[in-house]
Amino acid sequence: MNPLLSIQDYKAHFYTRRGIVKAVNGITYDVHPGQTLAIVGESGSGKSVSQLSYLGLLPSPPLKITGGQVLFEGNDLLKMGEDQLRKIRGDKISMIFQEPMTSLNPYLKIGSQMIEPLVIHRKKSKKEAWKLATQALERVGLSRPDQAMESYPHEFSGGMRQRVMIAMALTTEPKLLIADEPTTALDVTVQAQILELLKSIQKENEMAMILITHDLGVVAGAADEVVVMYAGRVFETGSVDDIFYRSQHPYTRALLRSTPRLDQLEKELPVIPGSPPDLIAVTEGCPFYDRCSYQKEICKAEFPRESSSGANHKRFCHVEKIS
Amino acid sequence: MSKPQSPILSAQDLTVYYPLRSKGFLRAVDGISLNLYPGEVLGLVGESGCGKSSLGRALMRLHEPTSGTLSVLGTDFLSLKGSKLREFRRNIQMVFQDPYASLNPRMTVSDALSEPLRAHFRLTNQEITKKVAKTLEQVGLTEQARYKYPHEFSGGQRQRIAIARALVLDPKVLIADEPVSSLDVSVQAQVLNLLKEIQKNTGLSMLFISHNLSVVKYISDRIAVMYLGKIVETANRDELFEKPQHPYTQALISAVPIPDPKLERERKRIMLTGELPSAESPPKGCAFHTRCPWVVPRCLEERPKLKEDSSGKRAVACFEVGKRP
Question: In chain A, whose CA is at the least distance from the CA of B211?
Answer without folding.
Answer: A187
